[in-house]
Amino acid sequence: MAGRADVVVGMPVYGTDGQLLGEVAAAGNRTFAQAEPNYRAGFTAAHDERYSGRQFEDAEPELRREYETRSTGTTGRTTGSGDNWEHLREEIRSGWNRARNS
Q1: Is residue 10 part of a domain?
Q2: Distance (Å, rounded) from C-alpha 90 to C-alpha 1?
Q3: Quick check: 32 and 18 in contact, CB under 8 A?
Q4: Is the pLDDT of residue 15 over 50?
Q5: Mean pLDDT of the chain
Q6: 3-class SS of residue 65
Q7: Domain membership flag for residue 9
C-alpha cells in the first residue's frame, strides 16, 4: 500500500504519515487497523471549529468526554473495544498533531 493516501479533510493515512501511525500503534502493541480510527478521530477533531486555536492538552477534557460518551451506552458499560482513554490518548494526539502541523 505504499504511496496510497486515503483522505479525510486531507488526512494522509499511508505513506510517510502511515509510518508515523505505525510507530504509534507499535508502541501501544496495537495493529495499524486498531490505531487508525483513533488517529483519524484526532485528525478530524483538530479541524473542528470548537477546538480552533487550542492545543491538544487544552481540548483534551472535552475530547475525552466525547470519547467516553460515545464508547458507553445508557447503562454506562463500554460498548466498544473496552479501550479506555489513557490507552488511546497517544493515537488520538498523534492524529491531532499531524493535522495541526500539516
Answers
A1: no
A2: 24
A3: yes
A4: no
A5: 74
A6: helix
A7: no
E strands, 1-102, where? none
Q: What pTM did the predictor assign?
A: 0.69
Place 79 in a pLDDT band, splitting at 50, 70 and 90.
Answer: very low
Domain count, the chain: 1
Neighbouring residues of 93: CB distance < 8 A, sequence distance ≥ 6: 42, 56
| C-alpha cell recorded at residue 58 | 487544552
Give yes or no for a contact between 28 and 62, defined as CB atoms under 8 angstroms apart. Answer: no
Maximum Cα interatomic distance, the chain, rounded to a whole number of Å: 43
1 domain residue, yes or no: no
Q: Which three cell numbers stand for residue 86?
A: 489513557
3-state helix, strand, coil in the chain (%, to 5): 60, 0, 35
